[in-house]
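In practice, a research group might receive sequence data for several interacting partners and want a quick structural hypothesis before committing to experiments. The following worked case mirrors that situation: the sequences arrive first, and a predicted assembly follows.
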Amino acid sequence: EVQLVESGGDLVQPGGSLRLSCAASGFTFSTSWMNWVRQAPGRGLEWVANIKQDGSEKYYVDSVRGRFTISRDNAQNSLYLQMNSLRAEDTAVYYCARAGVSGPGINYHWGQGTLVAVSS
Amino acid sequence: EIVMTQSPATLSVSPGERATLSCRASQSVSSNLAWYQQKPGQAPRLLIYGAFTRATGIPARFSGSGSGTEFTLTISSLQSEDFAVYYCQQYTNWSPITFGQGTRLDIK
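A structural hypothesis for the assembly, expressed as tokens:
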């Protein structure tokens, strides 16, 4: 069974930093593109970033580019999102999602999410 | 950026009836279109990809159609567990991948 378990969400002040983790199991992590998707309270889904299997390609939504960094450790079956210079508008539940082998477009499996709250 | 627009925002349907949800792309996404279901307090779940291919374990009452810029998700006979929010998502462009704003399917 595919499992994705996010952690690292917390209450942080504006301008602060946070590192989210996603522990993957039940599939061959190193063969899948991975995505981070977020959902602000009461709002819809917003794609944040994705990363290729070997980390050689990474893409970001404009609103986080330069502030967030996606990375992965295939030996540890883990996905990460380093979030710097956090803003109130980054407040959301952050989901990691397993995508396919050939591209990041289809989110086959999702974790339960971790809540990031940015507030003073 | 490809903008995805879903309609209606809210749809009220009685159990056992058919529900039809629409999704429009601001430019052609070919068949690179997925649908997700999200229930309160839960993560989204993949229903349809490639515009019409059901994901593993998805009941046959869910069907997708369309290509280019116009897409439809049809639920043929609504069950109680189908009342949720539904999102479409394009993946022709990988950056950004974009979602529609969602359609809430309510019990009438």
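Before designing any experiment, note the following. DSSP finds no helices and eleven strands in chain A. Residues 2 and 27 of chain A are 6 Å apart (CA to CA).
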